[in-house]
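Researcher: We're teaching a course module on how sequence relates to structure. For the next exercise, students receive a sequence and then see the predicted structure as tokens, so they can try to spot secondary structure elements on their own. Here is the exercise chain.
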Amino acid sequence: MVALTMMSKKKTIFLLVSVAFLFSLIGGALFGQVTQRNNVFRYLSIFTEVFDLVRNNYVEAVSSDQLLDGAFSGVTDAIDEFSYYVAPSQMNAYKSYVDTEDNGDGLVVTKRFGYAYVIAAIPGSPAAKAGIERGDFIEKIDGRPTQRMVVWQVRHALAAKTVQLQVLRGGQTRRDNFSISQANYHPLAITTQQFGSVAYIKIPFFEKGTSEQLKNALESARKNGNRKLIIDLRGNAGGEVDEAITSADELLTSGLITSVEGRHIDAKRWQADRATDYDGDLEVLTDNSTASGAEIFAGAIRGNGRGKIVGITTYGKSIVQKFIPLPSGGGVFMTIGHYTYPDLKPIKEGGVKPDVVVDLTAQALRDRDTKDLKPREDLILQKALSMFSEPQQSAAAKKAA
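Model: And here is the predicted structure for the students to work with:
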């Protein structure tokens, strides 16, 4: 018994020393800094106390590997919701996973409050057609609770050909069930409409060819004599950043579009050229499902005083990420850079705030309390039209939502 106890203590000491060593490796590899010795011992002491307390007193036996994996995951959880740790035991599964913002179902997801959270259902995608909406919480995927998954496992599970989802919608207590099958719905085309004297362009996703589509739509608006333009970026939550930057340049004649910065990446800046395809008045519609490249676009328009942003603050996901292998056999996928406004402030710090905020709280409460299946009014579009002194045209606004 004494021998076993001594072996157990030796194993614990070995694990704790390994933790300290691994934290040092992470600190050196990821941040290029050497942690001060007194801080290492102070944090290691706290970790040792918590580790021993949980390992020896939790209601059920917990393995050291489980506790350590949880500790390492906690490090990335403290950074941002898009970074994560992959344990050595999970690397084979991770290698078969391809990180993407679109698995063929159109769901752009993260983790919030422990559950899978929908940032956006890309317009025209199977998820959007099935009725999944931004702000939905996915509690289960094919019967598996998302609380037990890290974000890459959620996205990997959603990549199945057909998935069954149990979804909880904000403000509601009932669970809705959805079945979604992957489909090839790209490329996504820009759509245009006319509201009186106002031209309207919807950009659902930034992908190869989007900037060329926008260029053609802007030329058409200019030739038709439209001096008022609305560009709708709601639900645009991913795609190719370069296409978003080029698209913003189509509307600017000078100024910084954006820059990318980080402590250990090469800084880069994109300046607007003098050519433009449209010089009329501009409004850009955003909501909290506007993310990534669409935020860069909106930030460039607002930061250069080119037009007004109308709607809701964007998500705050204009970042650069990288997977970094660790000597342990695992790895860390983390944010290493961020895109900025023209004034060089990070977009990820709170997202792009609108010039004109549209409060949708009352509408959300009505949607929760009523069983009325009529299309909801598009209050953001209506506000934008009223700012251009155009009739609100409710029926048309509903159709465009």
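Model: If you want an answer key for the exercise: The longest strand covers residues 331-339. Confidence is low (pLDDT under 50) at residues 1-18, 29-35, 394-401.
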